[in-house]
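A quick aside before the break. I want you to see a complete sequence-to-structure record at least once, exactly as it would be stored in a machine-readable document. Don't worry about memorizing anything.
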Amino acid sequence: MDVYLACENSSEDPIDTYVVASSAMLGIIKLTMLQIQRSTLSINLCSAIQDWCNIKDARSREIMIQYARTARIISLSLFYCGFVSLTFYLLRLLPLINATANGRTFVLPMTCLFESVSNLQYILITFYQVIQLFVTYAGNCCTEGIFVGITMHLCGQLKLLMSDFHQIDHKYKRKGGSIIEEFVVRHRKLLKLTETVEDSYSIIILTQIFTSAILICITGFGLIVSWHIHDIVMTVKSIVIMIVMLMQCFLYSYAGDNLRDQSEALSFALYDSNWCDFSPNDIRDLAFIMIKTNIPIRLTAGKFFYVTRATFTDILKTAVSYLSALRVMIDKRETNSY
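That is the input. The structure line, written in tokens, reads:
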């Protein structure tokens, strides 16, 4: 409604409206989908707890800690960037103490709708908008923290399985042919866990990539405008928002690529083992395992396309091309005006 009324506000108000509204819709979609898939996703969480409780040696523990630290770094980076972006919106509250009836500043652009409210109503609306921003921030960043934690744990388990494949000949001599069945069961379990992540986050990934691509272009337009009018606050805020959007896209691409790489490495690990010393029946079983591992594990966006680093680079190239064309148009317009 504020955009429709087109009141005489600063140039960043419509952009802020689009960014916050899109982020709020993203948060609603993420929380709704996770609520629908909570029973499916709980399988991954219970399996991760069981894996941490059943660590048998220091090597396995070190690999799991390594991937857990990677997930922690990625999650905290996203949390901190999101919080910085949130802080820029809260900077609008600085004139709150000296607010008057003729000049009030809202956290979100609502000047047209609430320009004639009382002081008490102004305080209540401002408090409500702050809560909205915190919920939007938490709904986006925390759900992605869960995603990166689960996927990095699966990558660690795939790497442990690959390490066991390298040592399959030693275990085979100790336990006999039963070790082949253990690997098959473990591999099938990891495939099932990956499918649950795919089912839970497929729609979320599609919505996130589509929305982030649009918001990067909109925020980039605000960045170009603020750079020309020398608005430092808006320029820094636009840069931070673009970083958050790019990090969200990169997070899904990074997780999808890691799952694919680890799953493809399983086949090579089996081939490098001393499988020629096994019995003919066990060699046949290993051949079936290699055929299965040749199909890489991949995450998709709504079942439409695979999410890899190439997806992230395509979004980045499209956004940069759009911003370059837009900057040239603005420069030509300023030249013609002179």
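Two observations worth writing down. The first strand starts at residue 300 and ends at 301. Strands lie at 300-301, 305-306. We'll return to this after the break.
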